[in-house]
Amino acid sequence: MTNIVITSIGLGRQQSGEYVYSRYRFPDGKKLRSKYFPGALFRDIKPDCLIVLLTQKAREITWEKNDMRGYMKRLCGTKTKLVPLTIPDGSNEGELWGIFSLLAGPIPHEDELIIPAKAHIMLDITHALRSLPIVVLNTLAYLARTREVTLDAIYYAAFETKANESAPAPVYALQATLLLEWASAVVEFLHSGDSTRLAQLLEDRQNEFYRDSIAATTRPRNLKSVAKALRRLSLTLDLARPVESADAAAHLLNELEQVQPDLRHAPQFTVLYDQVRAEFADFALEAKVARADTQAFMRSHLAFIAWCQRRNRLLSAAINAQEWLISWLILRDGMTDLFNREAREAKSRDLGVATLGALPRSPVPSEDWERRVRETWWNFSEVRNDIAHVGLREQPKSAEILRQSIDQLVQALREVATQS
């Protein structure tokens, strides 16, 4: 594991490159004196590598002319790698991308990456110029996904809050890792509906309170219950199981009601609370209700299919759509047991024989809704077979055509549903 401090330095007093010795008080109460805050931070952390970001002017005046280089070299000695990195001023978009490329690339004149995989980063923004903290934070968020880099903390020495001129400047250490992890988990949830990572973060949050021996009266009690419900729902969604998914969604909604008193302990999730509820509410239905109330299940199943389509789970949408059509015809024929295997297999055979024997291979306008169902079945069969055979056919459909076909067929289901 590589521990890296990323810091920066400017031009100091009156743009002269001069800095004066100051005292700093760290969060644990330790007080250190240094000419430059990066020097005090180095002495507190003792990292494996210290990266100093410098504009060209700061390099010429502060680093070279005022010999910050010599000062930092003496501190680092031979055990810590010192990497001065000259960066653009960041005055336009091209220069901002230039900073990103430098941080994501190799050490100048070396093959080693500046920020290697699985590195642990401490970021100091005390002397950072203008937008530099934002650029570095976004770069680290990117590397967190691509190289499993961890941002352990953001440091800031607050000179402006000193009690008086001789008092030490308080140093704030903001724990940034979890914020980036929450942001990443939220993006994953909003784009795909996958809540696995959210579940892990909620579980970790509750564990923190018990690990740190916080008084029982102030501990959250239901965050892990929500996490368990989210995990179960994610698994059932991945396996495209409508009854289990609907039941898991109903259970999650109940757990979300129970967790409300604990939300003060997880403000990151509080912001997402209503979205999580809304995401799964349309198809939430307890399994016992799904088996007892066929109309409720049909509505839930159709909403589940629409959810799969919306979240680009197209294979799940296609295979469920055919099963929904079978259920529709079973009910149309006066039967009530949608889960009878023999009835479903018989109806599937009937649809296949009737479709191949009597209907054309392209949709035609018709007021006959049973005919409309059979046309839709045929088209879903074509799509489903093409997907199942992974395109290894004489004339496979393109992925884009399949997506468009599924969109159209889900709309056809909605039309069929209005005739139930």
- Using the coordinates shown, work out and report the CATH topology of the largest domain: Rossmann fold
What is the SS-derived class?
A: alpha/beta
The figure for the number of domains is 3
The H/E string reads: EEEHEHHEHEHEEHHHHHHHHHHHH
Q: Looking at the chains present, what oligomeric state does this protein adopt?
A: single chain
Apparent shape: elongated
**Strand coverage percent:** 5-15%
Rg, alpha carbons: 30 Å
**Number of DSSP helical runs:** 17
For the record, the CATH architecture of the largest domain stands as: 3-Layer(aba) Sandwich
Describe this structure in words.
With 420 residues, this protein is α/β, with parallel strands linked by helices. The protein folds into three domains: 3-175, SSO1389-like (Rossmann fold, 3-Layer(aba) Sandwich); 177-292, no CATH class; 294-420. Helix content is 55%, strand content 11%. The chain has helices at 37-45, 56-65, 68-76, 93-104, 132-146, 177-192, 196-211, 223-238, 242-259, 267-270, 273-281, 287-292, 294-310, 314-332, 341-358, 369-388, 399-417, and strands at residues 3-8, 22-25, 31-34, 49-54, 81-86, 120-124, 150-157, 169-174. An eight-stranded mixed beta sheet has the order 3-2-8-7-6-1-4-5, with helices on both faces. Helix 5 links the parallel strand 6 and strand 7. The longest helix is centred in the C-terminal third of the chain and has 20 residues, at 369-388. The radius of gyration is 30 Å and the shape is elongated.
